[in-house]
Write a structure and sequence with these properties.
By secondary structure, the protein is an alpha+beta fold. It has one domain: Sandwich (Jelly Rolls), CATH 2.60.120. It is 23% helix and 32% strand. The protein is built from 4 helices and 12 strands. Strands 1, 2, 3, 4, 6, 7, 10 and 12 form an 8-stranded antiparallel beta sheet that branches. A hairpin with a 2-residue loop joins strand 1 and strand 2. Helix 1 crosses helix 2. The termini are far apart. The structure holds 2-oxoglutaric acid (AKG) and fe (ii) ion. 2-oxoglutaric acid binds next to strand 11 and strand 12.
């Protein structure tokens, strides 16, 4: 199968071990999500489209949204997260409510280009990241308060955390190679009269 079929059709993307999420550090949950083959195809698609830093982004990175690669892909990922990821997170956080994705983008770290990302928190309900490759050194996604980094996370697996207040995180300096990760931000409910 070629990359085009795989990425645009979302073919052979899901890797589902059927296991519940595992708490790898305080309120950080890991689970299966994508096949390594799909991760590789998505990285090649992101490279074909190109990475552009947004000058208005307060935490600028070299990123490309899945919606820029393909609106249909963005929609499939949004539905897939609602079907496969959210129920596993609700076992841990029963009151969260899925309102779709604020964004999902591939971020790239390259020596001589973007080599780290400063400590920040995300403005979202729940944040997640998927490891897309592992042929690089450094650039671990680190949570200083939780004493956790994703250096040992296998390609295709996802970790999720509460976006604000308790889980500031940073990408440590890259030492060699190119890192790709998928960042996922889930919408905050805005129907405040429900609460
Ligand atoms: O995966 C990473 O390197 C971190 C990305 C991140 O925290 C973000 O895009 O908000
Ligand atoms: Fe972040």
């Amino acid at each position: 199968m070629d990359d085009l079929q795989r990425v645009l059709g979302y073919v052979d993307a899901a890797d589902d071990d059927g296991e519940p999420a595992v708490e790898v550090a305080p309120e950080i949950y890991e689970m299966s999500f994508w096949t390594p083959e799909f991760c590789g195809a998505l990285v090649r698609a992101a490279e074909a489209v190109g990475f552009t830093p947004d000058p208005d982004d307060p935490v600028p990175g070299h990123e490309v949204s899945l919606a820029t690669i393909s609106p249909a892909l963005f929609q499939r990922v949004e539905i897939d997260i609602g079907r496969r990821v959210w129920p596993r997170l609700q076992e841990q956080w029963p009151l969260i409510e899925y309102r779709g994705l604020r964004d999902a983008f591939v971020i790239r770290y390259r020596v001589g280009e973007q080599e780290s990302l400063r400590l920040h928190q995300d403005v979202a309900q729940v944040s997640a990241t998927v490891r897309l490759n592992d042929d690089y050194d450094g650039a671990e996604l680190a949570f200083p308060r939780q004493g956790y980094d994703n250096g040992d996370l296998p390609v295709g697996r996802l970790i999720a955390w509460p976006s604000l207040v308790t889980h500031p995180h940073e990408a440590l300096p890259l030492r060699s190679g190119t890192k790709y990760g998928l960042t996922i931000w889930c919408h905050i409910p805005d129907d405040l009269d429900q609460y």
